[in-house]
Specification:
Elements (H helix, E strand, L loop, with lengths): L1 E2 L4 H10 L10 E5 L5 E6 L6 H13 L8
Antiparallel strand pairs: 1-3, 2-3
Length: 70
């Protein structure tokens, strides 16, 4: 989740694509907060192992624009 700016979704997708392919059908979905200030992004990937998932998590959570991750 991050601030609802035009490029936030692209930022998240670029980070993830460096490490794993994104599922073709419905691989990315977004949802705005009630007030529209924040956007949550769900990305389905094809991971080859836990190390790959951990790397994605570390890079996303370290980025200053990513406010929360689940």
């Amino acid at each position: 989740m991050g601030a609802n700016r035009d490029d936030f979704e692209n930022l998240v997708v670029e980070i993830i694509r460096k490490h794993a392919p994104i599922a073709a059908d419905g691989g990315i979905s977004t949802r705005l907060s009630r007030g529209g200030r924040f956007i949550s992004i769900t990305v389905h990937i094809h991971a080859k192992g836990q190390d790959q998932v951990d790397t994605i998590y570390r890079e996303l959570s370290a980025h200053e624009r990513v406010l929360m991750m689940l």
